[in-house]
Amino acid sequence: MNSFKNIHPAVSFFCFFFIIFIIIFSFNPIYLIIGYLGAFLFSLTILDKKAVFKSLIFQLIIFALITVTNPLFSHNGATILFFINDNRITLEALIYGAVLGFTVTGVIIWFKCFNMVFDSERLIYLFGKIFPSLALVISMTLRFIPGFIRSFRQINTASKINGSYRLGMKRFLNSFSAVITDSMESAIITSDSMKARGYGLKGRTFYHRFKFNLRDLVYLLIFISAFIICVLFKTEFEFYPNFTLNSINVIGIISFAVLSFLPFIIELKEGVKWKYSISKI
Amino acid sequence: MKKLILFLSLILLLSSCSVKSVDDYYNEKSSGKLTAVISVNCKTAVKYKNSKRKNADILNSYKVNFNKGDTVFTALKNACKDNKIQFEYTGSGDSLYIEGIDYLYEFDCGEHSGWEYRVNGKFPSVGCNAYKLNNGDKIEWLYTCDLGADIGNRYKGE
Amino acid sequence: MEIFNIKNLSFKYNKSENYALKNINIKINRGEFLLLIGSSGSGKTTLLRMLKKELTPLGEISGEILFNGENIDNLSDRDSVSKIGFIMQDPDSQIVTDKVYSELAFGLENLGCKRETVCSKVAELSSCFGFSDIIEKSTDKLSGGEKQLLNLASVIAMNPEVIILDEPVSMLDPIYALKLINMLKQLNDDFGVTVIVAEHHLQEIFKYADRVLCIENGGIIAENSPRDICADLKDSIIESTLPIPARLFNRLKTESSCTITVKEGRELLSSFKVSDNNSYLELKHNDLALSCKNIFFRYEKQGRDILKGLNFNIKKGEIYALMGENGCGKSTLLNVINGNIKPYRGKVRFNSRIAYLPQNPKYVFTKDKLSDDLNTADNKNLELVDKLELNELLDSHPYDLSGGELQRAAMCKILLSDPDIILLDEPTKGLDTYAKDKLGDILRTLTDIGKTVILVSHDVEFCAEYSDRCGLLFNGEITSEGSVREFFGGNIFFTTAASKMSKGIIENAVTIEDIIRCIDG
């Protein structure tokens, strides 16, 4: 039912890229609030609610930390709250810190969504389109790591239980060198298996399971135009010496809202459709 | 044990901070037996294209008090405190560096802009917290948009 | 017409003095199911690798190999890759990529197939092999059996004329071994794929073979149909690997043709007069060595219980075999006993030293030389090395040892600490019959001097032969337990071939020896 996932990876990648790009470089509280809300609603639909709130606590801590830290190091701003060691602590610096913190949390939550949507298959597809040999390397690495960890655990357990090494560190090093030998050993078999199945022949193709259809094209056009409008019609703020709104641009704000709420809307629409079709059954 | 150390160092850090309210800070007047004359000027920034800055004279020949052994930085600090002017510095000791005065910061007027100082008409080659003042010195803080070239301190390279 | 024609093939490895293959002549027919048997190190693997030029080892080759009438060296790379499929023993290391679908596609990508072709091939294969549920899974999450089936499927994807398999089922549990063998049979019957397979575990595969080839010391010592080769191999060292009914046949004095299936074995037995002379001397062990009380364990907080209320008593000096299907928690129980993981309820009680041999015996070695690992500088250790016949291997790297040697060396290593209880996780995995018997003898000597052995295994025949008591772990509990004869005699499906053959004819006979004793008497 995960329908944002059904969008072609190149398209959804652009969506994430545009949103995160604007969040990082706009430094604009209005955009940040919109972007965060979009990500929050989207993450509620694709992530476990418990995980969302757990991450929310983490984000709050990060946000608070950055907000409080900035005025300690930046003493610009006209609205003085108090002095610490003869340095002014200002409201403007606090606001600046809050915006900075909000940028970071916005990027965190969007990356969380990105991680959910972009599993290894999509990631490999994207890289594979650009560098075909890299795709295989990623795939092989993803295959290698869990096995490596498991072998290490087994070797470590075996030497722990059989009491060869009392010292944890020495055991760790010995197990590590053993697991390296072990993985080199199995790498020989893997390379045999690759050779036997024709790796190295000329004209290797790249298999993937994605199709680019009309719907993807429509979404791609929406994302690109929304991004361009956002960049052209800026809303500008000034933080120092006084926090002022220089220009407000409703068109830019609306197009950014479209960009950052679309993932959620697509997800929601599909959910409603699904419920409707169930009720018909 | 780790937590205890962390807690103690936090207490130590907090106790080393002196927190003052705005009124408290500006009510204490700077003192000192010696005096110098200090000016802060940014006419280059006023002329800079698209600049929003209107007045070039931030401080005009203000007579500031200081003690023996104080530096140009102390004089600036005292003068700013007396006149409620914002300023910001970074670093400490000889490498202390003035980032901005009266909300005008380095790089605000291009990548070659920033604050430089002159004592009795000469640009010293040391940091402002390394230059010891004498009684009656004339200090000028000048904003440059071109590495000092526009205020008569052409950058000679390494 | 023959698909392979091997003429006067001899081969010597670069660093070796002796010939690994000596003057081999074989014709393999198109569509044939050829079984290669022989003890470890006899040259089976070398011969198989000679047939696939990408895997041909370095060395001195003489003679020639013709594939479809053409010298194999002249075969184009592309043809060699697609027409000759090769599957190795280790299910895990052969897998290249991280996902099941990408593994299936790997060979086709290499051959430069178009995306649409690969798509339809992947779909076809996954429905044929029943992969639909696991197609998006990580290959890492598959069981050993699933991995080996995947290896087979990804070779079949390239539509080979012949598939060569080097001990494909020796690392698998019986259920997947049977699945894989049946798959081979189907490929051979329905699609005419030529199958060349080397294997030690012959119980299931033997009857499917059109021809059996026995290799010893690099030469062919016997070549015949499965039924007739049994007689040829009588009294040779390879006889012990033959299926149980065939071995029984060789022991009985009869004129009929050789029996290779359980059904034939049963018919043969019923033609004999049997005496009910089966009183077995069963050793009684009384002192408790280890007890588990009401053990509960799960891996994840929200997960299901792997062990639930398990109770378990082991007597001093016995060999206890713990059996059960894959994933039933056998290995988990061993890890609970050895203290590696803690149960969330219940207690394990013992007051002696424990040693633990993991499923992969090479995991106990951490040094580059066996003598370093076994610490042979100590004379006390040398005695043990001597007992386990490891003297000649001391200078080798542990990873260079054969399966049986490695198992013995690992046993030696864990025995150095002089443990009282020895835990073994699937000790017979990947071993040939000869090595298994040797392991069994070692275990017997250990219990004779008062040590206790707990082993987890799928190997019904080994457990029947060497253990004192057996238990079946199911659904987190030990559901049935008893002495070997109570246990296997009572089971109808989960039992040895000898027990299946003699059911209804001889009571509680679980090994060939049990049967022979009743017949001779």
Task: Give an overview in words.
- The complex is a heterotrimer of chains A (281), B (158) and C (521).
- Chain A is mainly α.
- Chain A folds into 2 domains: 4-124 and 212-273, no CATH class; 132-196, no CATH class.
- Chain A is 74% helix and 6% strand.
- In chain A, a hairpin with a 2-residue loop joins strand 1 and strand 2 (87-90).
- Chain A starts with 8 loop residues before the first helix and ends with a helix.
- Chain B is α+β, with helices and mostly antiparallel strands.
- The termini of chain B are far apart.
- With 521 residues, chain C is of the alpha/beta class.
- Chain C folds into 3 domains: 2-236, 3-Layer(aba) Sandwich (Rossmann fold); 243-272 and 498-521, no CATH class; 288-497, P-loop containing nucleotide triphosphate hydrolases (Rossmann fold, 3-Layer(aba) Sandwich).
- Chain C has helices spanning 44-50, 77-83, 100-110, 115-129, 144-156, 174-191, 226-232, 244-251, 262-270, 330-337, 370-373, 379-387, 403-415, 433-448, 460-466, 484-490, 497-502, 512-520; strands at residues 2-13, 19-29, 33-37, 59-67, 70-71, 84-87, 162-166, 194-198, 211-216, 219-224, 288-297, 307-315, 319-323, 345-349, 354-357, 421-425, 452-456, 469-474, 477-483.
- In chain C, helix 13 (403-415) runs parallel beside helix 14 (433-448).
- Chains in contact: A-B, A-C.
- At the A-C interface, helix 5, helix 6 and helix 7 of A face helix 2, helix 3, helix 4, helix 5 and strand 15 of C.
- Strand 1 of chain A pairs antiparallel with strand 1 of chain B, so a sheet runs across the interface.
